[in-house]
Specification:
By secondary structure, this protein is α+β, with helices and mostly antiparallel strands. The chain is 14% helix and 29% strand. Strand 10 and strand 11 form a beta hairpin. It starts with a strand and ends in a 14-residue tail after the last strand.
Length: 262
């Protein structure tokens, strides 16, 4: 499973894709983030009072029964095939589904793949913002601490994608956003058909060499325009982690704090 996400979009893009009547509650200008790793704050979209709401959560899912996050190996992703069966996810998939916006997913080719030996960026076929299925949970500590945590769902890769990666994030189409986010009934059977293998019509492989060439071309066309270092940064292979890693390694940490991007 891919270790990191890519999110570079303007505020109107989020409102257009996820908002209703031109509004997206809780949405503020977002800094460009070429590399988002598990354990960091991540933007999520959920339903509250029948309307979409943007909220920052920690990308490190903690079940509500965890007493000390420092002693628990928190989870960055859950497999769609077992998400209903595992006790850690059983309630979240019924009552706390959300979406994670992204403009790409950094992926290493699976071991032994000969098609590409450089990091790949999986993007939407049109290069625009897309949504990844996710589940969330609010962890509550013994002293009243609260922390919203999230895990993305993964699905088997199919077709051309399967040549270089076994699993990819589960992509939800805009037409299915309301179905995925509707958790009022507490039933999952209506949204279960959305758990499908991901094919090339949902994610497109873009390798690192091609991306660097496009950035170089873009920089030459916009010479003299100031850009932040984060906008132009491409992750090194060592930053992407292993292809099948689904957990965030634990360790003693301080008390949960309000998540910030700035």
């Amino acid at each position: 499973m891919a270790r990191t996400l890519h999110l570079v979009a303007e505020q109107p893009d989020f409102v257009q894709l996820f908002g209703k009547n031109g509004q997206l509650v809780g949405m503020h200008p977002m800094p460009a983030r070429q590399v988002i790793s598990p354990g960091e704050p991540i933007l999520t979209i959920l339903h509250a009072n029948q309307r979409p709401v943007a909220r920052l959560m920690k990308w490190a899912f903690l079940p509500d029964w965890v007493k000390d996050p420092g002693d628990f190996t928190s989870i960055s992703s859950a497999r769609m095939e077992t998400v209903e069966k595992k006790p850690s996810f059983r309630n979240a998939i019924r009552y706390r589904r959300c979406l994670v916006p992204a403009t790409g997913v950094w992926q290493f080719p699976k071991r032994g793949a000969e098609a590409c030996q450089t990091p790949q960026l999986l993007t939407h076929p049109d290069g625009k913002l897309f949504a990844i299925a996710a589940i969330w949970e609010t962890w509550m500590g013994p002293f009243g601490e609260e922390m919203d945590t999230v895990a993305i769902l993964t699905a088997p890769a199919k077709g051309d994608l399967a040549k270089t990666c076994d699993r990819v994030p589960l992509v939800i189409r805009p037409a299915d956003f309301d179905l995925w986010l509707d958790v009022l009934s507490g039933r999952f059977h209506e949204a279960r058909p959305l758990l499908q293998p991901v094919t090339r019509d949902k994610l497109w492989i873009k390798d690192l060499d091609r991306m660097m060439q496009e950035q170089t071309k873009g920089q030459s066309q916009t010479k003299g325009t100031a850009r932040s270092p984060e906008e132009d940064r491409i992750p090194l292979p060592g930053e992407l982690g292993s292809d099948d890693e689904e957990t965030v390694k634990g360790g003693k940490r301080g008390k949960p704090r309000q998540l910030k991007l700035f």
